[in-house]
Design brief:
The chain is mainly alpha-helical. The protein has a domain of 123 residues. It has a two-stranded antiparallel sheet with strand order 1-2. The chain is globular and about 40 Å long. The N terminus is likely disordered.
Length: 204
């Protein structure tokens, strides 16, 4: 089974720019999703749907467990955004503009669970995202939000904040407890005996 870390590394290694002329060799009758017009063209609309995706139960649990496991926020963000690009939701420009909003969303969700948050892999003042150097001041603001829990105004809309109120407040609450394989089997209750109705043909 591929781990979350391996999936992140796979995305990092495959998110380089296309080979020059590669699109000319693709079948024009069957374009890839990212070769069509993107689903979203504005950061606001993309952010609203992204937040709803992040709080989907399975996705939410997976991401929060990844954060709790020490995977940096920027790596998780890169993996999520690259997947959106491959699915045709974003063009490259919108994908880059979504880095900050998505990173702050994940930080806000992780802060709610009081998790230890690592922003970038090397804890440097610079981070390479999709082959582009992320600005130093932006990275510092993200680290500040991760350490203080203070998300800049405007990063989370009122509707996002409202939806956050209904989410679990601890990591233990995000998944249902599973029955141990070592636990004793539960005896099934025998079905209650019912009286057999007397046949109309029985002797009296």
């Amino acid at each position: 089974m591929i781990t979350f870390q391996e999936e992140v590394q796979k995305v990092r290694s495959s998110s380089n720019r296309a080979i020059p002329g590669q699109s000319l060799s693709n079948d024009p009758e069957n374009p890839a999703p990212f070769e069509k017009a993107p689903k979203f063209t504005s950061v606001y609309e993309a952010s609203e749907e992204m937040f709803m995706d992040l709080i989907e139960p399975e996705t939410y649990v997976s991401i929060m467990e990844a954060v709790d496991g020490g995977i940096p926020i920027m790596q998780i963000t890169q993996m999520i955004l690259f997947q959106k690009f491959k699915e045709g939701d974003y063009n490259p420009d919108l994908m880059m503009m979504m880095i900050e909003p998505v990173a702050y969303m994940i930080i806000a969700l992780a802060e709610r669970l009081d998790l230890d948050i690592i922003v970038d892999e090397d804890d440097d003042d610079e981070e390479d995202i999709f082959g582009v150097n992320f600005k130093e001041d932006q990275l510092k603001q993200l680290k500040g939000a991760a350490s203080t829990g203070a998300i800049p105004a405007g990063m989370l809309t009122p509707s996002m904040q409202e939806k956050m109120e209904g989410l679990p407040e601890t990591l233990e609450e995000t998944s249902e407890p599973k029955e141990s394989l070592l636990s004793p089997p539960v005896a099934k209750e025998a079905p209650e005996e019912t009286e057999t109705p007397e046949s109309l043909m029985a002797r009296r």
